[in-house]
């Protein structure tokens, strides 16, 4: 079902990364981890990639907000989106997708996420925290530097509120002031935080290359293929 929705607010939340708040259409309900399709209406410029993109919802259903976050690239779509004024309208379709937290609370969840792939995971972890679910959740979140990492403060807050949630930010190019994990996520880093790698369900999202590399790393560590759930974020 298609809805025309208005932009309520936009803000920069990390390097070249913006958060867009939209009015939530009446009757539209979504699950944590789902996404919607956002179509520009009569954009001032266009290119061969078209005027429509899919974006995951940043907030949990219980937070009752409709928002998306994206890296701002040079594509016509992203440039028009960046320059939209408050009150501008887009056509919205959705929700779609089944990238969501498994129901069995006794089975741990491990999220291995790169960059803007964090958006559906923020929704899932927020909802589980609000619900006080018993899921044991660990997030390994990779970015170049803290300035490149959206929602760092949110996850630090969730870790305080939720005793079942462990947050592991990982920076690949951090300077000497960074006290957390550095370098790339590998099997040794995984085993530092996960005592038995065969038990959890793993969620991978981010750039396709990273998702592929992390899937290969998990398989190499002995994780079964059907315990790995993926969502790729192409860099459009």
Automatic annotation (TrEMBL):
Among CDD domains, the record links this protein to:
FNR_like
User: Which protein are we looking at?
Assistant: Ferredoxin-NADP reductase
Residues forming the FAD-binding FR-type domain are 1-102
